[in-house]
Structure formats: structure tokens, C-alpha cells
Amino acid sequence: DGRVPLDMVHSQPQINDTHGEQIFRFSESQDYLRDIGGLDESDPSHPQVLISNYVLGPANCYKSLAFHTFCCLNECDAVLTEVERSVGGPSAQPDVILPLLENLTTSSMDEPRPLSTGLVAKLSGIAAHSRGMV
């Protein structure tokens, strides 16, 4: 479901390359993950990292100079910003969000496309687990 338990993320073993240099290790704090929207704390006793939000977070940008950071543009950011602006906040009921999504166009999509019944069902499923909100 796109989530990994936080304790599993932080318990990853250190892996070194042939020169003894550390290859990769998750070191972001719980506060940092929360700040970037990368932490699901709907069950406070079992926080989970939201993989997509983590991957798109600022830690995965390339900082080449003191004054410049390069990140890949994510078309989803513009879509999410538009939806949040239209609904007046970070969440709404599916019947408010669906018409927005069904009339959506983007730089890679000239005409709105109908949402599949599977996607509509997923949206409803999310709402069912989130007090009716998405």
C-alpha cells in the first residue's frame, strides 16, 4: 500500500562499497519525515513512511551549489495544489474531489479522462478508512 513501518526503515543495516564507503542508509528523523508529509501516524504506535512522499521529498534533490538545488519536476504537485485550492484544504469528501479529477487537464493530458471504476473505488476505500475524507 505504499507504506513501510518506520522502525523497519531505521533498522536497515549499514552497507559499504568495496572502498568502505557507506552506500545508502535512511537517516531522516521522524520529525523530518512528518514535516515533508512522509509519515503516516494514523496509528501513533506504528508510524509508517509514505514511500511516494519520501521519494519526492527535498532530501532526494541534487544540491550542486550553495544557492541552487535541482529537483525533478513532479506534475502531481501542480495537480495536488489545484485540488487543495479548489476544496479549500488538504482533504475533502470523495464526492467533492471526484468532479475536480474528472475535469482535470495537465501539461501531459490535453483532455480530461474519465476515472476508472477501480480508481473511484480506491478513493472511496481511502475515505472509508479516514473518517470519510481523502
Structure description:
The chain is α+β, with helices and mostly antiparallel strands and 134 residues long. Helices cover 37% and strands 15% of the residues. The protein has helices at 6-10, 30-35, 51-55, 75-87, 94-102, 117-128, and strands at residues 3-5, 15-16, 22-24, 39-40, 48-50, 62-65, 68-70. The strands form three sheets. Strands 1-5-4 form a three-stranded antiparallel sheet. The longest helix is centred in the middle third of the chain and has 13 residues, at 75-87.
Order of adjacent strands in the largest pleated sheet: 1-5-4
Q: What is the number of helical segments per DSSP (H or I, 4+ residues)?
A: 6
Largest sheet: 3 strands, antiparallel
Q: Give the overall shape, derived from the CA principal axes.
A: globular
Strand content: 5-15%
Counting DSSP E segments of at least 2 residues, the number of strands comes to 7
Task: Determine the N-to-C terminus distance.
Answer: 15 Å
Structural class: alpha+beta
Mean pLDDT score, rounded? 82
Helix-residue proportion: 25-40%
Taking all Cα atoms into account, the compactness measure Rg is 18 Å
Elements, N to C (H/E): EHEEHEEHEEHHH
Unreliable stretches (pLDDT < 50, length at least 5) are: none
Helix and strand arrangement:
Blueprint: E1 3-5, H1 6-10, E2 15-16, E3 22-24, H2 30-35, E4 39-40, E5 48-50, H3 51-55, E6 62-65, E7 68-70, H4 75-87, H5 94-102, H6 117-128
Antiparallel strand pairs: 1-5, 2-3, 4-5, 6-7
